[in-house]
Specification:
Elements (H helix, E strand, L loop, with lengths): L8 H5 L13 E3 L4 H5 L1 E2 L6 H4 L8 E8 L2 E5 L2 H9 L1 H4 L17 E8 L2 E5 L2 H9 L18 H18 L2 H5 L3 E12 L2 E12 L3 E8 L2 E7 L4 E5 L1 E4 L2 H13 L1 H6 L7 E10 L2 E10 L2 E7 L6 E9 L5 E14 L2 E11 L2 E2 L5 E8 L16
Parallel strand pairs: 2-4
Antiparallel strand pairs: 1-3, 3-4, 5-6, 7-8, 7-20, 8-9, 9-10, 10-11, 11-12, 13-14, 14-15, 15-16, 16-17, 17-18, 18-19, 18-20
Length: about 375
């Protein structure tokens, strides 16, 4: 999600993959039941409870739990009960995505390793090899303690800067009155034979319907996320797996317009967190958290303009680190002042897939409902 300013460059580079685990409750069953026959046995039939303890013990085909499309076998009823009591601990992590690359790259459920008593799967043997060499680079550490509470002064200053950013962007009435946003942009991607230009059209109908179409010399694809559906379209429509949908939703929330529009939401918190540089300009960092996401905005205290947005995320090689987007070339469109250039880095290195030049923006234009409908046939 990278643009309603930065919304969907990550969405853009994602490729579709087949349904993985569903983030709902598990199902217990007996061998030979319809549910069991449709599910995919994982980790070569080993008992996951034993596996996270460092022991490879084959599970009994008559003792199992199904989570989404994954079937977990257990050596005994006691281990099955442990799994059902705390499935998030024992099941395959990251919703079945490749632990090196993250969503949307799917993992092979029989290509696995255990790290810190968690099971991870991989899209290829090379991904497994790279992960095992330095797993700490690919897995976010679990929070060991709650984040220190911001002081009243930091919260007051943070809120003041957010309101100043709202004014600099066009004002509360314009931001909160947004109905739709369309952005046409260009991004360069590397190919074995050289760079190619990827054209993208991002359409957002607020608050939460998003469509991204990308066109390059060698492909055309579409991603759609709405409250009632989520799918990708490359030759044929495919349902977006839950892990991918959740990841893309987080990216949407991290986009600049989404952050500013969420300022009055329950749980929204903004606190000053020190000074930094955005290009050659000194900015105040404002740590923002709401609805399960955390990020920093770099706000010019003199103008209120947001010049950077940063968060922890995956880079082009899959490692988790600091993603920084720097905004420039601000122009007025439909009463809003928005950046037409985004330059991104990951751990200080250029991140081309999230860097782009915006060619045009349409504010509150008409959007046909069919734009978010699942295609019935190849286009």
């Amino acid at each position: 999600m990278k643009s309603a300013i930065s919304l969907f460059i990550i969405l853009g580079v994602m490729q579709a993959f087949g349904p993985l685990t569903k983030a709902g409750g598990g199902r217990a069953g007996q061998g030979g039941s319809p549910q069991a026959s449709e599910a995919v046995a994982v980790i070569e039939g080993l008992d996951p409870v034993m596996l996270v303890q460092g022991r490879e013990v084959q599970g009994d085909q008559k003792i199992f739990v199904i989570r989404g499309r994954f079937q977990y076998l257990f050596a005994n009823a006691e281990n099955k009960a442990l799994f059902e009591k705390d499935p998030e601990r024992y099941e395959i992590q990251l919703g079945g995505s490749c632990a090196r690359m993250g969503p949307p790259v799917g993992g092979n459920p029989d290509l696995y390793t255990v790290y810190k008593e968690r099971i991870y799967i991989f899209g290829s043997p090379d991904c497994l090899k790279v992960f095992k060499a330095a797993p700490e680079k690919f897995v976010e550490p679990e929070p060991s303690a709650a984040r220190a509470a911001a002081t009243p002064e930091a919260l007051k200053r943070g809120r003041s800067l957010i309101e100043k950013a709202v004014a600099a962007t066009g004002g509360a009435a314009k931001l909160d009155g947004l109905v739709s946003y369309e952005e046409n942009a260009a991004t360069m991607q590397s190919r074995p034979k050289g760079d190619v230009e990827v054209k993208s059209t991002l359409t957002v109908v607020f608050p939460d319907s998003i469509r991204l179409e990308r066109v390059a010399p060698d492909f055309r694809d579409v991603s759609v996320l709405t409250p009632s559906d989520a799918f990708t379209f490359y030759r044929v429509p495919r349902t977006m797996p839950d892990a991918v949908r959740a990841e893309r939703s987080r990216y949407f929330k991290r986009s600049l317009l989404s952050v500013l529009r969420a300022r009055n939401a329950t749980g929204f918190e903004a606190a000053v967190a020190g000074s930094a540089k955005a290009g050659d300009t000194s900015v105040e960092q404002v740590a923002v958290s709401f609805d399960g996401v955390s990020l920093n905005l770099g706000i010019d205290p003199a103008t209120g303009r947001v010049l950077s947005l940063s968060y922890r995320g995956r880079g082009p090689d899959g490692t988790v680190g600091e993603v920084v987007q720097t905004f420039s070339d601000f122009r007025e469109v439909g009463g809003l002042t928005l950046p037409f250039k985004v330059t991104a880095t990951h751990n200080g290195q250029p991140f081309r897939d999230q860097s782009r030049a915006v060619e045009s923006i349409i504010i509150n234009g008409q959007v046909a409902p069919e734009a978010f409908a699942r295609p019935k046939a190849a286009q």
